[in-house]
Amino acid sequence: MTRRAVLRYLSHPQVLIDPAVPVPDWGLNDVGTARVAALADAVAKGALAGTISVFTSRERKARDTALPLAAALGCDCTVIDESYENDRSATGYLPGAEFEKMADAFFADPEVSTRGWERAVDAQARITACLLRIADMAPQGDVLVVGHGAVGTLLYCAQAGLPISRDHDQGPGGGGNVITYARATLVPDSGWRPMESLFNSGD
């Protein structure tokens, strides 16, 4: 029986928060870097077996995640400009509690731009178009897409036929989660799971 090809959407793990640096330029912190290194090391033991192409958002934290994995897999890593996180440049960096309130509003009122943030419906349309483009352009086999938590959740809601809701978000922990889609249909197997679930990767 032929194994079905999958497309995995992986959110970058924990970042080094620096209010003096634009959010898209944040890199991974020590914890995030170690988690990526552990997954890259697990490739030799079968993690992400079958993956023949890697795609990433241009944001530094996504590239810091994608590049070591692509190197371990022996794959090219293609940047997809439109796959960035929801545009929050109108406010820039927000302290934790204030950011969480804004994120709640982003998901709760998807057709409203709160304080200039990109609307959730617009971010969802953008990331869904990106996924379709990647699935169309990637060679046959498994695909790894490295991106972000909010747009990844919007993508999941769209492909699972669910209304936009933060109930489907990654939850606490700083990212580093994965959703697996059937490549042929782009239907998700489940919601977010920790990236460590890929270590023995069948999945």
TrEMBL record:
Highest rank taxon of the organism: Bacteria
Protein name: Histidine phosphatase family protein
